[in-house]
Design goal:
Layout lengths: L1 H14 L6 H10 L4 E5 L6 H12 L9 E4 L3 H13 L6 E4 L5 H7 L6 E4 L1 H10 L9 E4 L2 H6 L3 H9 L6 E6 L16 E4 L8 E8 L5 H12 L4 E4 L3 H13 L5 E3 L5 H12 L5 E4 L14 E4 L6 H8 L8 E8 L14 E2 L14 E6 L9 H10 L8 E6 L4 E6 L3 H8 L3 E2 L2 E2 L2 E3 L2
Parallel strand pairs: 1-6, 1-7, 2-4, 2-5, 3-4, 5-6, 8-13, 8-14, 9-11, 9-12, 10-11, 12-13
Antiparallel strand pairs: 15-17, 15-20, 16-17, 18-19
């Protein structure tokens, strides 16, 4: 018990958390009593840490091979969980597997198997068929956002994977939907259920609306974006064509933003999220692909440019804001004769936007690309020192740093960006000549 308390205290310190929230404490208590746990919790409730902590308590540093498998419905969620686990600084190796990038890289990473493996059902099943890793050592299974995995049709892959795990001692299933039937293949029987999908746990969201004249929703959207100004905002559309059309208009108006949808390459999507997190842009135009798995606590506004088709979809979109007890605003953009969705139980507050608008100023930050990463033994300290000594930046002019396997991305002061790049373009980072440029 003392060892688990010490692990928890260390994780809190590494994550810079003051304390655990109610859901996280409940999960630790349930972990002491049950081999099967079902966590029903809204997005933004801290559920990732809630299931990672009990998992961490069960890992054995003296054992080799994969000990814990976390299955998720999307690559974005897989990457997010990996990032949180790395931030815990537990000392255990973690790998992330998902479609959209070369399988060979992932297979090479299995030469020294991770303790924790995170992945999408399709890619994990593919690795198992190829014998990339031995499933015999896995004794912990997490099915995160299981409802979404079922919705996306991953039942066969999950059934295949779980059928190859003979030594599972603990199963944790999470869902953001209450009306979920747990299939037999999951192996989750007689679970302890923690249900936080209650009215008092709903996000603190104010719902507002703007109405277009003559059905010109695009014009009213631009006005709304200008009205919101500098607050981090997600704009939801139902189709990627609408995302691209809005992006073209914003580009013509010189409004800094980015896009996120399934038609983009994986590295483009990852870069869009990375730049959103570090503040290089504060407007992300997206499809429902972003309604799950994005953990960006500072999002203040959700704009429904095209309305969600169901109440559940509406809730999941809104779950990107008002996270961890913060407040947020959900905006409906309605055509002249478009009705408020029937599933809304409260009437939105209609706002009249001013005729004269001012375009938002560019964000403080812009992202710098450095062509070296973890595999080149580059650290955040190396990058900060390099930018201060060679790039003539101060610490205050350097923002969030993200180091990937083969590249690094750094938020730097937008005004200083050109001079900084000119000063460092021919310099070496840690005695290595690497490509440095403003990330597009």
């Amino acid at each position: 018990m003392k060892q688990k308390q010490d692990i928890t205290a260390k994780v809190l310190e590494n994550l810079k958390f003051g304390s655990l929230n109610e859901i996280q404490n409940a999960m630790i208590s349930a972990d002491l009593k049950a081999s099967n746990i079902v966590l029903l919790a809204p997005t933004g409730s801290g559920k990732t840490v809630a299931f990672l902590l009990p998992l961490l308590h069960q890992l054995n540093a003296k054992t080799t091979g994969v000990q814990a498998l976390i299955l998720v419905p999307s690559r974005e969620l897989a990457l997010q969980i990996e990032q949180v686990f790395r931030s815990m600084a537990s000392g255990f190796k973690v790998n992330c597997c998902y479609g959209g990038h070369p399988m060979k890289i992932e297979r090479n990473n299995f030469s020294e198997p991770p303790t924790v493996l995170i992945g999408t059902p399709g890619r994990i099943a593919a690795h198992l068929r190829r014998g990339s890793f031995d499933p015999e050592s896995i004794h912990l299974l997490v099915l995160d956002e299981f409802d979404k995995s079922l919705e996306l049709g991953f039942s066969d892959e999950m059934s295949y994977i779980i059928g190859l795990l003979p030594k599972i001692k603990k199963r944790i299933l999470t869902s953001a939907t209450q009306a979920i039937e747990i299939p037999e293949f999951s192996g989750v029987k007689n679970p302890v259920t923690l249900n936080y999908l209650t009215e008092e746990n709903r996000p603190n969201i104010v719902i507002k609306a703007v109405r277009a004249t003559e059905n010109d929703k695009l014009e009213i959207l631009i006005k709304l974006i200008c009205h919101i100004g500098h607050e981090p905002t997600l704009v939801f559309c139902n189709h990627r064509e609408a995302v691209d059309r809005i992006s073209e208009i914003l580009t013509e108006e010189n409004v800094v933003h980015d896009t996120f949808h399934g038609g983009l390459e994986q590295d483009e999507r990852e870069r869009a999220l990375l730049k959103f997190r570090n503040g290089s842009h504060q407007i992300l135009i997206t499809t429902d692909l972003a309604s799950r798995g994005l953990d960006i606590p500072e999002i203040k506004n959700i704009i429904h440019y095209q309305g969600a088709n169901t109440e559940e979809g509406f809730i999941h979109r809104n779950g990107r804001t008002a996270r961890m007890n913060a407040g947020g605003t959900a905006w409906l953009v309605l055509a002249e004769k478009e009705s408020v969705p029937d599933f809304l139980t409260i009437s939105p507050i209609f706002i009249n936007l001013p005729e004269q608008i001012r375009l938002p100023e560019s964000p403080l930050w812009i992202t710098l690309y450095i062509g070296a990463g973890k595999k080149d033994k580059i650290s955040k300290t190396d990058i900060v020192g390099f930018l201060i000594q060679k790039g003539n930046l101060t610490k205050e002019e350097i923002g969030l740093i993200t180091i990937l396997d083969n590249a690094s991305f750094v938020a730097i002061n937008r005004v200083k960006a050109r001079k900084t790049v000119a000063a460092i373009k021919d310099e070496k980072v840690k005695n290595q000549k690497v490509r440095i440029a403003i990330s597009n």
